[in-house]
Design a protein that fits this description.
The chain is of the alpha/beta class. The chain is built from eleven helices and eight strands.
């Protein structure tokens, strides 16, 4: 037999259900404020900017673990977040915080590093914006692009998506190797930011170098096309000629090593000669501008050479025949000059006396009288007679210094 159930008033049951629903709804509205009856610690953080998607109730994490939530977001004195943390959880003055993305749908969370006790407790103070970092949404980044850049980015993403299709395994391999790649990237980043790398100076030099190509894009394009043609020529026959050359290269280098060793000795011996050549090279460099000017000014003269050479051609051909006819006379002329040299050797000591005689003849014919007479023979004899103390037979070369120098008298 069945026991009869207790009588239940439907109205009372409906009221209980409604009250429970209202209580659950009220708790849902205030759940982001924390559970009633629990003790909480509050900290205020200042940020440069706060994403619109970050609201009250957003998670607060420490080392990836949730420890609290955002209690309130205010913008009265700049963007500030009031964090609700468990009681006894201390935030220190050297703490740091950053807003990070939780998903691609725009959800965010606050990542904090509480700091060290040596810095002192933060208390009611505000953690400054210099110790906080806000996240930059991809939407904010895209908003900075103009229409053409957005279209180009759209095309690039479509191309990347189409190219990545069917390469899931390759992507998995990339993700599996990413820890090692990131470690290498970390080392690369530290190397690039090191002071001895001088990355800033390198970038400045690269900027100046790229500026030198302004206005020469067409020449650079032609150079790239020529380089492409060269690479295609190297890759002819599947690169087999290049591969054969590379295979023979070690033996060639082995054979070339002794020659290079000998060349090193020759270069060492040539060093002093090159050092001695330095002044000559400097002098050559000094006269180069003058030589260049002479070449530049000789262009008009050289332009006139072809007509002159054409006109002088017949005379040169005729002169060739003359020299051919005079060739038998050359031995006789040589003998004549040889005999004349003997006679001139006898007269050589009297060269000063001959010079004195010629000077006297020049003076005799230098001036004339009113009658147009130029030869002053009487003056010559008068001068001779005046030089009574002269030696009539001086030695060769002493006529000019023997006695007193005579003076010619006028007509």
């Amino acid at each position: 037999m069945f026991r009869r159930g207790l009588p239940i008033n439907p109205k009372l049951l409906g009221l209980v259900v409604i009250a429970a629903s209202l209580t659950s709804l009220a708790f849902a509205f205030v759940s982001h404020k924390g559970l009633p009856g629990r003790n909480y610690t509050y900290a205020t953080l200042a940020f440069e900017q706060v994403p619109p998607s970050l609201r009250d109730g957003t998670e607060v994490r420490v080392r990836g673990q949730r420890v609290g939530q955002v209690h309130h977001v205010s913008f009265e004195n700049g963007p500030r977040l009031e964090l609700q943390l468990p009681g006894g959880f201390d935030i220190y003055k050297d703490a740091t915080a950053r807003i990070r993305s939780r998903s691609l749908l725009g959800q965010k969370y606050v990542q904090i590093d509480p700091g060290t006790p040596a810095a002192g407790a933060l208390g009611d103070a505000v953690l400054g914006a210099d110790r906080t970092t806000s996240v930059v949404d991809i939407v904010d980044v895209v908003d900075t692009f103009d229409d053409e850049t957005r279209k180009a980015l759209h095309t690039a993403l479509l191309a990347v998506g189409g190219g990545a299709g069917g390469h899931g395994q390759d992507l998995n391999d990339l993700i599996a190797a990413s820890p090692d790649l990131l470690a290498d990237l970390n080392l690369t980043g530290r190397t690039l930011t090191a002071e001895e790398t001088r990355l800033v100076a390198f970038l400045a030099t690269a900027e100046r170098l790229s500026g030198r190509f302004n206005g020469r894009e067409a020449e650079l394009e032609r150079l790239i096309h020529q380089m492409g043609d060269t690479l295609l020529a190297v890759a002819a026959d599947g690169g087999r000629p290049l591969a054969d050359t590379v295979k023979k290269l070690p033996a060639t280098l082995d054979a070339l090593t002794p020659a290079l060793a000998d060349l090193e000795k020759a270069a060492a011996a040539l060093g002093p000669a090159v050092g001695d050549f330095g002044p000559s090279a400097a002098a050559l460099g000094a006269v180069t501008p003058d030589f260049r000017a002479a070449l530049r000014e000789s262009v008009p003269v050289l332009g006139k050479v072809p007509p002159v050479s054409e006109l002088s051609g017949p005379a040169l051909f005729a002169l060739t025949g003359t020299f051919n006819d005079a060739r038998p006379l050359a031995p006789a002329l040589g003998k004549t000059f040889e005999e004349a040299a003997k006679q001139l050797a006898i007269l050589a000591p009297y060269a000063p006396d001959l010079d004195l005689l010629l000077d006297g003849l020049r003076d005799a014919f230098a001036e004339g009288d009113v009658n147009g007479k130029y030869l002053r023979v009487a003056s010559i004899f008068a001068a001779i007679n005046q030089a009574g103390n002269r030696n009539p037979y001086p030695d060769p070369g002493e006529a000019a210094t023997d006695g007193s120098r005579y003076t010619l008298v006028g007509p």
